[in-house]
Amino acid sequence: MRRLIAILAILAxxxxxxxxxxxxxxxxxxxxxxxxHTSIYKGASVGAGFDFSPVYAGVADIIAASDVAxxxxxxxxxxxxxxxxPRFCSPVEVGAALVGAGFDxxxxxxxxxxxxxxxxxxxxxxYLSQTAECVIGDGGVKTVRRGxxxxxxxxxxYATNCGTSMCVSRFDENRVRxxxxxxxxxxxxxxxxxxWGNEYDTGRYIERFEPTEKQKEQARLxxxxxxxxxxxxxxxxxxxxxxIEAGERRTFCxxxxxxxxxxxxxxxxxxxxILTLDFVRDSGGVHVENPKIIPTVCHYDKDHRGHTVxxxxxxxxxxxxxxxxxxxxxxxxxxxxxLNDLFYQNIGELFR
Length: 352
Hints:
Purple Acid Phosphatase, chain A, domain 2; 6-stranded mixed sheet; single chain; alpha/beta; 8-stranded mixed sheet
């Protein structure tokens, strides 16, 4: 009953809409890194294949209820030779599960894009292009239409860990300027995925995570060029959000949505965020309203099994006591109070 009430409260502010009927409002959600470590795909093994749908079942209602949903697929996909960190290769069933959960736009530009070489990246792009509505991160401007609203999606990563293939969309100011110019010409709103910033991988308790100066500089550039929404990924923890003023308009920037799914070790890495917002058309065009962050927890047990995404509102101290991060040296005890404190210290009241 508690779960039903929580989901109904969220859906109450997300008007339902799918298909091509003209409408003044389009609802949008986004999540951070879908990072498939070895224990996750081993736990999803079923017979001769894999079933990842239970991982996302706890939040699939929210994802599917939105008009457009975005996820950063951090690991490239394959049909064999599976591997975890540091050079990931995940079963293709991950992509099918994401689409089954309701994701429409899947980003593949990140530091792990070339873990399996250019061939691995191109295979992932090809598979997801046949599975999902829109794949970004392979260059250019992609669009999604809902009724009379066209949303452009751009994607950039700061670098790749392996290889230098130009098939992956890396951040370059000249390239960004060209892409943004085209996006503004063909779409009503522009969303930019940015894989950037510093990775957090320590048990030290940090009350508030801050974007780097380079992140803020790039965000201001994107705002000045007309981006409406910036979605940050890569730090593995949630970072603050803000409105960036650019002349007579403003840009919403979520500097990092944290991990959506992972087997990372430390407490802060278990907290993620679902960004929800509306694209609203009025006489002045399409603009962004009501950006909010819904906190989530990626749970797995002390044997590193049972990976599941929970809403923080539904997570319990009993679950926290059984979480695998309890095996690690966290400076602050991992419990629901710690997760709530991190959320409130990093996400301002305006966006909660």
